[in-house]
């Protein structure tokens, strides 16, 4: 049975429900009309707008994916999914909602699709068990990791509580624009096969992924993990790590063998080894050596 609710009207008058301030990364990456829809649907169904946005990013890049299944009315992919939130017809029949509260729900309509995604999450465990809800959306642990990593980025998980009304211009600052861009690039490579010596989207090794991510952010880094570690600057021991910091592993500082990019507390994105893919995993490895925070410009 469909729960037809005037979602946008509810959201518009729900002044008592706080909406978390979008991070700089969210404002930069999410089209304003999509950001508003995520926030409105989140208020109506008491779910996280950041998780809705994470799903929208992974599924269709907030409607910008060139695949017609993401935006062309009636078009579906090989699995039968269609619309910006990639609903199957059977799932849509159960969870589809017209955002206006009336009419026939349309899974290619962004407002309807985002509203339906919020409805789906709510009925599958959100907000109390968000991982369960996202897994129900797509039965893949890597999918859950990817969605929640984007949600963390959009939520500015490392916020110190300072206002973002006057964003910093320093690329060396924690979680600054360069770090956000590097993390966004790395997250977009999740699922890419490991390839020794690889430094492009067809395949990466660990340091190739790091170099490519920071190159996309306008910062030039050396090619191999040892040189990246030596380039620093180091994060002092005991200081909390920030999104975009590089974490290194090896026998000792003169024998660095692996590197990853911090994406959330305790987790990094990396290209681990032959036979694996770019993925998110904990960085509490026994051979952890330390971290650096890349700085500089395109020629730095």
Largest sheet: 5 strands, antiparallel
Q: What distance lies between the first and last C-alpha atoms, to the nearest angstrom?
A: 58 Å
| Tally of individual domains | 2
- What would CATH call the class of the largest domain? Mainly Alpha
Shape: elongated
Report the CATH topology name of the largest domain: Lysozyme
SS element count, helices: 11
Order of strands across the main sheet: 6-5-4-3-7
What is the average of the pLDDT values? 86
Helix content: 25-40%
Strand runs, count: 7
Low-pLDDT parts are 1-17, 159-174
Bin the strand percentage. 5-15%
Q: List the secondary-structure elements in sequence, H or E.
A: HHHHHHHHHEEHHEEEEE
The CATH level-2 architecture of the largest domain is identified as: Orthogonal Bundle
Broad structural category? alpha+beta
Rg from Cα: 20 Å
Characteristics:
single chain; 300 residues; alpha+beta; Lysozyme; endopeptidase fold (from Nostoc punctiforme); 2 domains; five-stranded antiparallel sheet; two-stranded antiparallel ribbon; 11 helices; 10% strand; elongated; disordered N terminus
Can you describe what's shown?
With 300 residues, the chain is α+β, with helices and mostly antiparallel strands. It has two domains: 7-155, Lysozyme; 177-292, endopeptidase fold (from Nostoc punctiforme) (Alpha-Beta Complex). The protein contains eleven helices and seven strands. It has helices at residues 7-13, 24-29, 32-45, 49-60, 89-95, 110-123, 130-137, 141-155, 177-188, 206-216, 225-231; strands at 199-200, 203-204, 246-250, 256-264, 267-270, 279-282, 288-292. Strands 6-5-4-3-7 form a five-stranded antiparallel β-sheet. A two-stranded antiparallel sheet has the order 1-2. β4 (256-264) and β5 (267-270) form a beta hairpin. α8 (141-155) runs antiparallel to α9 (177-188). The radius of gyration is 20 Å and the shape is elongated. The termini are far apart.
């Amino acid at each position: 049975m469909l729960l037809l609710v005037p979602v946008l009207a509810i959201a518009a008058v729900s002044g008592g429900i706080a909406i978390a301030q979008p991070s700089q990364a969210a404002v930069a990456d999410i089209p304003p009309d999509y950001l508003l829809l995520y926030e409105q649907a989140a208020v109506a169904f008491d779910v996280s707008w950041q998780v809705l946005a994470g799903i929208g990013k992974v599924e269709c890049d907030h409607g910008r994916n060139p695949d017609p299944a993401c935006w062309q009315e009636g078009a579906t992919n090989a699995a039968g999914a269609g619309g910006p939130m990639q609903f199957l017809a059977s799932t849509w029949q159960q969870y589809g909602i017209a955002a206006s509260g009336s009419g026939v729900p349309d899974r290619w309509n962004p407002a309807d699709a985002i509203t339906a995604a919020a409805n789906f999450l709510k009925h599958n465990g959100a907000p109390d068990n968000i991982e369960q809800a996202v897994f129900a959306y797509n039965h893949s642990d890597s999918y859950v990791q990817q969605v929640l990593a984007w949600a963390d980025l959009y939520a500015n998980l490392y916020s110190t509580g300072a206002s973002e009304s006057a964003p910093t211009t320093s690329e060396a600052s924690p979680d600054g624009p360069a770090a956000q861009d590097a993390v966004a690039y790395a997250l977009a490579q999740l699922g890419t096969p490991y390839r020794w010596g690889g430094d492009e989207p067809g395949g990466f090794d660990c340091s190739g992924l790091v170099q490519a991510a920071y190159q996309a952010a306008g910062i030039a880094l050396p090619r191999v993990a040892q040189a990246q570690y030596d380039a620093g600057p180091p994060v002092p021991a005991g200081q909390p790590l920030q999104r975009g910091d590089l974490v290194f592993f090896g026998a000792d500082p003169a024998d660095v063998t692996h590197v990853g990019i911090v994406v959330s507390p305790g987790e990094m994105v990396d290209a681990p080894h032959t036979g694996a893919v770019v993925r998110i995993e904990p960085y509490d490895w026994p051979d952890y050596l330390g971290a650096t925070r890349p700085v500089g410009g395109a020629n730095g």
